Amino acid sequence: MALLLLCPALLAQNWDINALHRVNSWDGRFARNYNKVISKSEPYVAVGVPVAMAIAAWAKHDKQLLKDAVYVGTSVAGAFVLSYGMKYLMDRERPYERWPDRVHAYSREGSPSFPSGHTATAFALATSLSIKYPKWYVIAPSALWACSVGVSRMQQGVHYPSDVLAGAAIGAGCAVLNVYVNRWLNKWLFGE
Fold it and tell me: With bands split at pLDDT 50, 70 and 90, how would you rate the model's confidence at 14?
């Protein structure tokens, strides 16, 4: 009976490390450099987009753009807080620490592995922009960038696929739930 209960957990762990090993093994110079740049772009893009929206709204005196900036910014902030809180609650070892023989660390991180905070904030940004501006030229590049962030975190050897999938779910979920939170926030901030 215990063997039946352990088999799914072992198979899931094998899938996680095997998929990570494949992605982490992309050894071409272009793949390594591209993933390094994408991974490092995440905090600048995730913070920079809502800040730029807020500055543009202030300069143009555009109240709707300011509301959108608040929504996008609070979606990203919510995903950041939730994912980093969960990291320390779950306290999962980084893959390069757990599997040093199978995973090469192109980057090193000081926080626990699960979930991916980079992926969570990237998906919060992409989803919130897609909700506010449902045009293909917003959805396609933002989704491509968010997915690239997730893949880059695996190629860098700092996250398992399950970390990235959980981060994507957290980020997208925060953006969707934040639609309702921002209805209250708009009343409070803008008196509507």
Answer: confident
- Gap between the Cα atoms of 103 and 36, Å rounded: 16
Instruction: Identify whether the C-beta of residue 40 lies closer than 8 Å to the C-beta of residue 100.
Output: no
Separation of first and last alpha carbons in the chain: 59
Region for 104 from its dihedrals, namely left if φ exceeds 0, alpha if ψ lies in -120 to 50, beta otherwise: beta
Question: And the tokens for 162?
Answer: 């399950």
- Cα separation, 16 vs 23, in Å, equals 11
Q: Which residue has the tokens 């506010």?
A: 132
Report, in angstroms and rounded to the nearest whole number, the Rg of the chain calculated over CA atoms: 18
Q: Give the separation between CA 139 and CA 122, rounded to whole angstroms.
A: 13
Which residue is listed with tokens 């300069």?
59
Closest CA to 182 of 75, 79, 82, 77: 75
Contact 47, 76 (CB under 8 A): yes
Q: Where are the domains of the chain?
A: 28-93+113-190
| Nearest one of 62, 172, 67, 68 to 115, comparing CA atoms | 172
pLDDT digits (tens, 9 = 90+) for 107-166: 888 888 899 999 999 999 999 999 999 999 999 999 999 999 999 999 988 999 999 999
pTM of the model: 0.87
Local structure of residue 134 (DSSP, 8 states): -
